[in-house]
Amino acid sequence: MAKLQHVIEAQQFTLPLIHELFQTADQMEKILERGGTLDYQNKIMASLFYAPSTRTRFSFESAMYRLGGKVISTEQAHLFSSVIGGETLEDTIRVVSNFCDVIVLRHTEVGAAKRASFVSSVPIINAGDGKGGQHPTQALLDLYTIYKELGYIDGLKIAFVGDLEQGRTVRSLAYLLGKFERVMLYFIAPDFLQIREDIQDYLTRHNVWFTLESELNKIISEVDVIYVTRIERERFGDKADIYEETVKNYFIDRETISKMKEKAIIMHPLPRLNEISPDVDSDPRAVYFRQTKNGLLIRMALLTMVL
Ligand code: CP
Q: Of 75-79, 114-118, 135-139, 176-180, which range is least confident?
């Protein structure tokens, strides 16, 4: 098994590593089905979350318990750790890494996980750093979901919809998809929420086809995946009317999905706000809750690879 030192950004994952991760996640599913655990009872995972999380924190903690390991945790590190007294992230990491075998870190600042990796004596896993940073483990579980649901990634046509400017899951997934053959990426958003130039430059440098569009309707019948992200109200300040119009323009309801391919899928990293109508949930193409289950498997697999 390949050994990972840290999990910081999506770009670090090569195609062989991604394939190995998927195979390990498949094995984790079989182990879970048998009700088994692995031999990690002497290992401790610290989850250090400076920003709110439901899925990432619970799935990492569940993954560690399912492996037979132990968890120490602070879910509001900005309130309940020595940071409140002015301790730096670096000092906190130097100390916490003495108490555990791996640290899962969510932070409000872009680049925090990388900074942590420079001073940590144990592996750091980036569980999301800042708005517009990265969320590599989410992107890996997204990619695994696409692979499991559709059976292919090469040749994929995917539409990203919503706040692509700050959406760290979209940014990380774009980096990963750029490693595959003949993928086509459609970034669907108004100008002020469009994907940033750093991702566009990366895709251009790697000869990945992409286009920036503002209307989903134009391409909805062509794509294999619609990947929807949150549009946060606070991004619009006092411009409530523009927020309402933007949400309405990109809202996914039963009429929208009636135009999708029969085998296409709708994904969302969750939590959702007003992006997808709840009556879409029962459509077999809505995979966002299955996506969260895959998060457990991918995070079990990642933990085995870093430990
Ligand atoms: N998708 C995701 O990162 O969800 P949480 O913020 O609940 O962890």
A: 75-79
How much distance in Å is there from the Cα of 279 to the middle of ligand 1?
A: 22
- Protein fold of 136-292: Rossmann fold (3.40.50)
Pocket of ligand 1 (CB under 6 A): 53-56, 128, 135, 138, 269-271
Residues 77, 103: contact at Cβ < 8 Å?
A: no
Residue nearest to atom 1 of ligand 1 (CA): 269
Does domain 10-134+295-306 correspond to CATH entry 1.10.940.10?
no
Whole-number pLDDT of residue 285: 98
Domain layout of the chain by residue ranges: 10-134+295-306, 136-292
In this structure, the residue with its CA closest to atom 6 of ligand 1 is 53
Q: What percent of the chain has pLDDT over 90?
A: 87
Q: Which of 47, 48, 50, 54 best tests ligand 1's pocket when mutated (most atoms within 8 Å of CB)? A: 54
Equal fold, 10-134+295-306 vs 136-292: yes
pLDDT exceeds 80 at position 83: no
Rounded distance, CA 84 to CA 65, Å? 29
User: How far is the C-alpha of 227 from the C-alpha of 114, rounded, in Å?
Assistant: 27
Question: Is the pLDDT at 233 greater than 90, yes or no?
Answer: no
Element (H, E) at 177: helix 168-177
pTM: 0.96
